[in-house]
Amino acid sequence: MFELTQRLSAVALLVRENRSLADIGCDHGFLPVYLLMNGRITKAFACDINEGPLNSCRALVARYGLEDKVKCVIGDGLKCLGEDDAQDIAVCGMGGELIVKILSECPWIKNASKHFIFNPMTHPEILRKYLCENGFEIGTDKIVKEGRHYYVVFDAVYTGVLIPRPESYYYLGNITDFAGGEYLAHLLKYLENKEKGGARLSEVISAVKEKMK
Length: 213
Hints:
The protein is of the alpha/beta class. It contains 8 helices and 7 strands; from the N terminus they run H-E-H-E-H-E-E-H-E-H-E-E-H-H-H. Helix 4 packs parallel to helix 5 and helix 7 runs antiparallel to helix 8.
């Protein structure tokens, strides 16, 4: 049995037990296969827009004899899923802007029974802002260090409640452990460079500096 990367392990921990999972952008299919082999989920939809990764997923599924529990689907974002196919939906390994596009093109995401797990590789602030402005509540929010890189992993559910948030929230979310301050130092440098380019980020920068104390 294989082990997941630290990034995917963080995603796996947020998937609820005894649910059907949709893995959007499944790549090689490690997440659904791992969760099924460990008895965490009942079935899975492994979705990817590219045939190459999906073929790798099919091979992994066959290797572990899970053809009856994993449906490999080629398609764009959530368009290849029906509303009742999965209760937990993981959207990982792509930029925050693309995840927002995927969500905004899906007519059934505002459903309180759905549990979303996200791993935006870039611009998590864009995704958090979209969620907050569309009635989603962000729950667990964490930083995962893998090698020299830092990744953000968080989950969200639809409540329909719009809660005003400061701009800094979209960058810092509900994170409580900032990996010893290294992530904050990286974020601060990024924000200061954006401000030099004309962005108005003084409130965000002040909030980050406060977290660094």
